[in-house]
Design a protein that fits this description.
Blueprint (H helix, E strand, L loop, with lengths): L16 H26 L4 H35 E3 L2 H7 L12 H21 L3 E2 L10 H29 L5 H18 L6 E2 L1 H69 L2 H26 L4 E7 L1 H4 L4 E6 L4 H8 L9 E8 L2 H11 L14 E2 L3 H11 L14 H5 L19 E3 L1
Helix pairs in contact: 1-2, 4-7, 5-6, 6-7, 7-8
Length: 439
């Protein structure tokens, strides 16, 4: 007679949290393997033993199915209570920030936020921020029942406002939806906990707090936008002052040189040296033309140089910067850009003088618009392009203004440092932020 196999006893797992859920799945797999072994042992059993074993297996399967249904319900509950706060994932999905409440400036946003805050306070003081059931009694006392409901309503409102204030204080422009989702979960949780007394946050009050979040996010984005505009305006003014100082220095130098030649000319004329005087008069005419040219450049703010530069050591071989300067010596501007903020100096590929350098720069930027590095701030003048591509574009747009073009960057510091010969390893992938908050 074959030996009877003792049925496997299965006890449904009591799991709390995500660890118990996934642990239950592993146990189910182990128990399924044990069932397979038992089925193999059934092949040598008689009919009565097989029937008994089949009944036992059916009981185990039913228990496993019940456990699986329970685990699915637990997973659904936990997912419903989670608010995803993965910053990295959010930033990968966002594009250019779009204002939900477009206003002229930060001052206008601040005024609207102040008005909204007054409305929120008025609802809280007027008792319309929280909805609750009426008719509760304690020991037959309606007054005591009303007092109890009022106390619990106040407690729920304080909890909600604490979370709402935290959301407003920490909201960032590109995380508005996550912040609103968090506050929605808080309102849902309060409604669930206060279901017995019918306590919940009033929909109108919740809408005001959500409006406060979106308005605050817009305000912070506008403040940052205005700060960036101020920084760029200061840089433009600094560059303009530097150009004007150069013009003044050059005019002073030419005026001094002009006075020397005028004094020498007077002496030659007094001696009757007509040939020498003619040479000095020609030189004085050249100086006069130079002074007129400097004054013309100073008066015409569109006159200047368009430069094409790259920094292979800092940005790689397929990125260029195309800008414009009014400096008398445009290389001074290039040297300033290669200061301590970048590891190597910039290489100059082209310097194009134009009486409409502003327009020439704008045409180049428009032609390379799809290759911009920074598509949010168009005042950043970097483009994904190699010098050869820019050379062809310059020949088409600048025409005869393009005198010379250096396609290959020298990158002397970068090559001398031996950086291009080092076998560098790619940086380790950052650990994604996958924090979650249960509310």
């Amino acid at each position: 007679m074959p030996q009877a196999v003792t049925p496997l006893a299965v006890t449904p797992a009591r799991s709390g949290g995500l660890g118990g859920i996934f642990g239950g799945r592993k146990r189910a797999e182990e128990e399924n393997e044990e069932l397979r072994r038992q089925i193999n042992a059934l092949l040598g059993m008689d009919a009565a033993a097989v029937a008994a074993e089949a009944a036992a297996l059916q009981t185990q399967v039913a228990a496993l199915r019940a456990e699986y249904t329970t685990l699915q319900a637990q997973v659904a509950t936990v997912r419903a209570e989670l608010v995803r706060t993965s910053t990295e994932a959010e930033l990968q999905e966002v594009g250019i920030y779009r204002y939900q409440h477009p206003l002229a400036d930060a001052v206008a946003y601040k005024a609207q936020i102040a008005d909204l805050t007054d409305r929120i306070k008025a609802m809280a003081r007027g008792g319309t921020a929280v909805e609750a059931a009426t008719g509760w009694t304690i020991n037959g006392s309606v007054a005591e029942g009303r007092k109890m409901v009022a106390q619990y309503s106040k407690l729920m409102l304080r909890a909600y406002n604490a979370e709402a204030d935290n959301c407003v204080a920490r909201v960032q422009p590109h995380r508005v939806h996550t912040t609103i989702e968090r506050l929605d979960k808080v309102a849902t949780t309060i409604a669930r906990l206060g279901k017995t007394m019918g306590i919940r946050i009033g929909p109108d009050y919740h809408r005001l707090r959500v409006h406060e979040i979106t308005l605050t996010a817009d305000y912070r984005a506008k403040v940052e936008e205005e700060k960036e505009r101020v920084r760029e305006e200061r840089e433009r003014q600094r560059e303009e002052r530097a150009a004007l100082l150069e013009f003044e220095r050059e005019k002073a130098r030419l005026a001094k040189e002009q006075s020397h030649y005028q004094a020498a000319l007077a002496k030659l004329q007094a001696k009757g040296d007509l040939a020498g005087a003619a040479d000095l008069e020609a030189k004085l005419a050249e100086i006069g033309e130079a002074i007129a040219g400097v004054e013309a450049r100073e008066a015409n703010i569109r006159t200047g140089y368009v430069y094409v530069i790259s920094n292979i050591g800092a940005f790689g071989p397929n990125m260029v910067k195309i800008g414009m300067t009014r400096r008398l010596d445009p290389e001074d501007r290039v040297r300033e850009l290669g200061d301590a903020s970048v590891p190597f100096k910039f290489d100059t590929h082209a310097l194009i003088f134009s009486h409409d350098a502003v327009g020439l720069e704008a045409r180049l930027h428009a032609a390379l618009d799809k290759q911009r590095v920074n598509k949010v701030n168009t005042r950043r003048e970097f483009f994904y392009a190699d010098p050869a591509q820019v050379r062809d574009l310059l020949q088409e747009i600048a025409g005869q203004h393009l005198v010379a073009y250096h396609e290959t960057p020298e990158a002397l510091e970068w090559r001398a440092s031996g950086t291009h010969k080092q076998a560098t390893q790619p940086p380790a992938a950052p650990v994604p932020s996958t924090m979650a908050t249960v509310v």
